[in-house]
Amino acid sequence: xxxxxxxxxxxxxxxxxxxxxxxxxxxxxxxxxxxxxxxxxxxxxxxxxxxxxxxxxxxxxxxxxxxxxxxxxxxxxxxxxxxxxxxxxxxxxxxxxxxxxxxxxxxxxxxxxxxxxxxxxxxxxxxxxxxxxxxxxxxxxxxxxxxxxxxxxxxxxxxxxxxxxxxxxxxxxxxxxxxxxxxxxxxxxxxxxxxxxxxxxxxxxxxxxxxxxxxxxxxxxxxxxxxxxxxxxxxxxxxxxxxxxxxxxxxxxxxxxxxxxxxxxxxxxxxxxxxxxxxxxxxxxxxxxxxx
Amino acid sequence: xxxxxxxxxxxxxxxxxxxxxxxxxxxxxxxxxxxxxxxxxxxxxxxxxxxxxxxxxxxxxxxxxxxxxxxxxxxxxxxxxxxxxxxxxxxxxxxxxxxxxxxxxxxxxxxxxxxxxxxxxxxxxxxxxxxxxxxxxxxxxxxxxxxxxxxxxxxxxxxxxxxxxxxxxxxxxxxxxxxxxxxxxxxxxxxxxxxxxxxxxxxxxxxxxxxxxxxxxxxxxxxxxxxxxxxxxxxxxxxxxxxxxxxxxxxxxxxxxxxxxxxxxxxxxxxxxxxxxxxxxxxxxxxxxxxxxxxxxxxxxxxxxxxxxxxxxxxxxxxxxxxxxxxxxxxx
Lengths: 292, 332
What we know:
- The complex is a heterodimer of chains A (292) and B (332).
- With 292 residues, chain A is an all-alpha fold.
- Chain A has one domain (2-281).
- Helices cover 75% and strands 3% of the residues of chain A.
- In chain A, β1 and β2 (139-142) form a beta hairpin.
- Chain A starts with a helix and ends in an 11-residue tail after the last helix.
- The model of chain A has no long low-confidence stretch (mean pLDDT 89).
- Chain B has helices spanning 2-23, 27-52, 61-78, 82-104, 111-128, 158-180, 182-192, 194-199, 204-230, 235-239, 241-255, 261-279, 286-301, 306-329; strands spanning 140-141, 232-233.
- Chain B has 14 helices and two strands.
- At the A-B interface, α3, α4, α9 and α11 of A face α4, α5, α11 and α13 of B.
């Protein structure tokens, strides 16, 4: 019983992080109708930044969050402006496969660039905080798990509020719903795309330090979490912000509860099975939540 | 006149390829050509669904691995010739293609790319964790029989050269047929405008599924060839994302949806990869960085691939030649 309870909590905690990782991806898709295959690579970059912030600058991992977020925002603006935009604007259809292929190239390039620069070693931050624990009854909660859970909820609420109540948020949603109509109303879609892509990466930046507290970083860390983020987005409904968090929690729970009964590798296969089943029966996602 | 020329080129190339092993006495050079042919074949297989069908697959290693493992296990455990194992592997890969394709092809966009990527990754993890049965992470050796062509083995590597050459020719014929048949036109219509094609009564899901199954079965055959050629398979080698990416990039960079693009891509990229590896002293990551970079550059400047640049250059040259010929005769 205690182990089930522990698994339940662990699942929710890692699911919350998956949710943050998936948020940015879902936002970008909701607005631009593209899947950014380099998402995992940007996560990897966020983790290396967190590592540098913690070990070279001596920042607390939580204090590293705003730094990483700011850097990723700028990276996002630059990547959209100089890399994705030229390819995206050439596409006539609304679901551009050439952007998909382009970001695949970016993903492979970035991962291997970091393999060349940083080497294949796993790196862990020097942080006492990362190993701190609370004990509640029979359940062990680590500091990063609790922080991740709180921050995931805060970020999701903030993003939903931003999209709903601010002028920029409404412009982003309008562009996502109908680019031509938004253009007619005087919204500069290119600039909206840049901002949304950058916000997507900034949100991803939040997960960098949180993830680094529990997982060492290496050049290919993004492959695993990136793929999981895609699955989360599909489960939650592509473009849905609340759905991303819900989907993240679901994947976290399937994984940790599945591992109670099955070897760990089969719980990976289980998630994939759920993914295919959702695509088949409910391609709009499991949760009927508001779209970006 | 132009028709005749378009036939002479492939026939000439075919004869040259038949005679090539007589010139290539150096085993290393031969192995480079065999590898380029294998990747040509795999990219041509990928082209059916990824190029002509317009559905990006990032997990073709799944089918390749199924082919390699099926024939090897059947051969080593039950003594069934890999020639038959190859067909069994193609069958299994077709089943996998249906399972992956069915949910995805009703939808559009990135779903198929995601599903194939995930499928290959999960198959690799599953095989790595089978401990003894499939050899686990260490892989499997193919039982050595030395000179046994009926068991798809020979110590003379030219044996493999002619087999893979025949495979490439078959793949070219299949692609040529697909590009010129009603089936290919349907696929192109679906790729260019899904709604319009569906409105005209094209069953998009069915055609995409047929293309995916054919592509998967062909890729599995390539997996068996690889197992018999190298005589050793390991999960990372045959299911790894490295291989999936290579197959896709070669086709896209060469020219997806064209007949000769995949072959061009393989014969450009594999030697380039080799060169990059030599120049950098084998630093890990450099060759894949090259693949990623090329993919971005091609998508940015000529998404239809390098073959388009070559065709343009050829047309330019012909025009120039025509002009000088006319000038020579004094007709101008």
